# Entry
Amino acid sequence: MVPYCPERILVHEESWKDATTREMLERLRGVPTSTIRDVDALLPELRAAPEFRTAGKRTLILTRNLGSFMKECPGAGAEICCNYFVINYALNCHLECTYCVLQAFLNNPALTIYTNIDDLMREVEERVRRSPGRTFRIGTGETADSLALDDITFYSLRLVPFFRSLPNAVLELKTKSAQVANLRALDHGGHTIVSWSLNPDRVIRNEEFKTATLGERLGAARRCQEWGFRVGFHFDPLIYYKGWERDYEEVVRDLFRYVDPDGVCWISLGCLRFTPHLKDIVRRRFPRSAVPQGEFVPGHHGKLRYFRPVRDEMYAKMRAWIGENAPQVFVYLCMENRAVWERSFGRAPASSSELAEKMDLLAGVKLPEDS
# Structure
């Protein structure tokens, strides 16, 4: 994995009030730093650069988030959803996955880290404590990789013990990195799950630039299990190509050579999906990418997806391979409809609530009325 080091750092004047700002600058000592008053005023400059989506990431902006940190997962509108929540500590990612949706919807191409993490934790605590009778599964991987910047932010050192103090919440850290060193000595109390997005080496080499190799990801997962963390895995996106069966079956075998299946909370499956606009961006930025190739049809939320028989086949085979190696591990589909569940798994959850209740149970959080 390629570590991140910006060419310049721009600090919003209000962020100088946050201790996290000074701590991050100390870790990035030597990088030219200046103070700004208006992030939006920088956008014309950042977007004017040639290949601005790549060039913009060389700028790191430290600023405060003045809006809400916590929201429902974008999948909440799907026919069957696990009722997940997300909190956004940063915007953008220095990793370069060809299919990344951030390319299409981020107005600011710079890498942005929010410095008011105390406000983030305060908002989460208020939200979950208002509903003590329900479990909150919360992830940080929607608008940035959960751990790829942890050597700069050290936010895991704050968030993991914080979630330990919330009786009805669990944190899921999703990553394509092997950046787990900060987790080693943390008291997580079973309230943090560390998860990896997985793909075959061929896909990682050709579509997931600057990320950790498959072996590095699995090695990091094994270390986290040794440190007492439960882990999860996400085969999302599954990418269809000639010979995909051999490659993905090998990944599944490798996965359970590295990790103990009894310590795996869940595995999700989700086929490649993207907007028509993103498809054009990928073609321009990554002309050798295989992602735009193949036949697609409009699906949920207008995104392009593989034809249903292709998705049915991929999901059914992945579930069978996982079942052969670890029959006790729960496997679920992300952003798919009832028909696909039934055709590939043989049955579908009766509702989003049923799926959410199953995953709440797997999360292992014991609610006060259960004790």
